[in-house]
Design brief:
Helix content: 40-55%
Pfam families: DDE_Tnp_ISL3, HTH_Tnp_ISL3, Zn_ribbon_ISL3
Number of helices: 15
Number of domains: 4
InterPro entries: Transpos_ISL3 (IPR047951), Transposase_DDE (IPR002560), Transposase_HTH (IPR032877), Transposase_Znf (IPR029261)
Order of helices and strands: EEEEEEHHHEEEHEHEHHHHHHHHHH
Number of strands: 11
Protein name: Transposase family protein
Length: 400
């Protein structure tokens, strides 16, 4: 169909010259209107001379379930300042093969849906959608102010199966994800501190983390004024694995002659790892009976509660008294795994004491890590880690 007088507001400066329905969608030919000004795409000044005209095929928003293809007659202008340049079109970016309207539509839905789903909605190729989304994410991050963190939180999350991890760094005050990188070694996280630079590193006062030696050493190397703060949750989780689990297995092996009691001890793992306040009411008698019948399990269970109190000390002096008392009880317990854990914990005392001055934890980042897992499940994983990391940073731009 041909109509030389059809002028629509969708494509400013152009009119419909031809309209055709095909198997692969709707094809619309556009030509410049006689009144449309010719503007240089370089200097954005008005031009009067046309060097040549050419056709470009462009995708636009689907209409009534049909893909829309535009064949646009564009002009290359002779600009006094820029030389030969393509004319500026308000609804089309330079060199673009899709309209700004379609790009905005794709970007909007990429905030809520996986790339594969947006492909079905828009009819665009996966790589095209990902490119649009990447440009949107990079633009969003570029608009953020320069980060000036004072306190940091560092943690890791599983990137792929097979013990492959990534590290996340969070501004503890603004909740902005500053950096995400693959790996958890010193070499992997050193990139963050190099990006932060010596001046901003010197401003860091405290960093919350688990007992990851790589994190600790890099903070000491790059942030001379920072105190490392060890997270209670990770220490208690380590205590559960290395002490409570070990004692439970040892006691189960010792009770080979008492099969009913051995079965109770073997099945009590989650009961022993829980805080007493979180134990269901119907399980409380079972826990009390188990602890009363086994002295070793009673000891390590009580020592776990005492260990948590180190993070509740009101002053450094209170902490020192509680720390010395805990170490002495661990030494006098004659439980090998507990003594071994206490000996290992001695070298981390500064990071535990720092909690008195800096009441920080990695709980903020644990919540973000859970959101990251949801993002991975929604997208059925990401082939491109850098693109995934952009998604994470854009999802947590921080509080104003």
């Amino acid at each position: 169909m041909t109509d030389n007088n059809l002028d629509l507001p969708f494509w400013e400066g152009f009119r419909v010259w031809n309209f055709d329905r095909r198997d692969d969608g709707t094809w619309i030919s556009l030509v410049p209107t006689d009144t449309a000004p010719m503007i240089c795409s370089g200097c954005e000044q008005s031009c009067s001379q046309v060097h040549e005209t050419y056709w470009r095929t462009i995708r636009d928003m689907p209409m009534l379930g049909d893909s829309v293809w535009l064949q646009v007659n564009l002009r290359r202008l002779r600009c006094d300042s820029c030389g030969t340049r393509t004319e500026r079109v308000k609804w089309l970016d330079r060199h673009a093969r899709i309209t700004q309207r379609l790009a905005q539509f794709v970007g909007l839905w990429c905030e809520k849906l996986p790339v594969a789903h947006v492909c079905k909605l828009s009819g665009l190729h996966w790589e095209t959608v990902r490119k649009i989304d990447r440009q949107r994410l990079e633009g969003k991050l570029a608009e953020l102010p320069d980060a000036q963190p004072i306190r940091l939180v560092m943690d890791e999350f599983a990137l792929f199966k097979g013990h492959r991890y990534a590290t996340v760094v969070l501004d503890a005050d603004t909740r902005r994800v500053l950096w995400v990188g693959e790996g958890r070694s010193r070499e992997a996280i050193r990139v963050f501190f190099e990006w932060l630079g010596p001046a901003r590193c010197a401003d860091i006062q405290a960093v919350a983390m688990d007992m990851n030696t790589a994190f600790d050493l890099e903070v000491q190397l790059h942030c001379p004024n920072a105190r490392v703060v060890y997270d209670l949750f990770h220490v208690i989780a380590k205590y559960g694995r290395e002490v409570i689990d070990r004692v439970r297995v040892d006691e189960a092996n010792r009770l080979k002659g008492d099969l009913p009691m051995r079965r109770v001890v073997k099945r009590a793992r989650w009961l022993l790892l829980r805080n007493r306040s979180n134990v269901p009411a119907d399980q409380q008698p079972k826990l009390d009976e188990l602890l009363a019948a086994n002295e070793a399990l009673m000891t390590v269970y009580i020592m776990k509660a005492s260990l948590k109190e180190l993070w509740q000390a009101a002053s450094a002096w209170d902490w020192r008294d509680a720390w010395r008392a805990w170490l002495k009880m661990a030494h006098d317990s004659n439980i090998e795994s507990l003594q071994r854990f206490a000996k290992k914990l001695k070298s981390y005392w500064r990071g535990i004491l720092a909690r008195v001055r800096w009441p920080m934890h990695t709980g903020q980042l644990e919540g973000i890590n859970n959101r990251i897992k949801v993002m991975k499940r929604m997208a059925y994983g990401y082939r491109d880690s850098a693109f995934f990391f952009l998604k994470i940073k854009a999802a947590y731009p921080g509080n104003p």
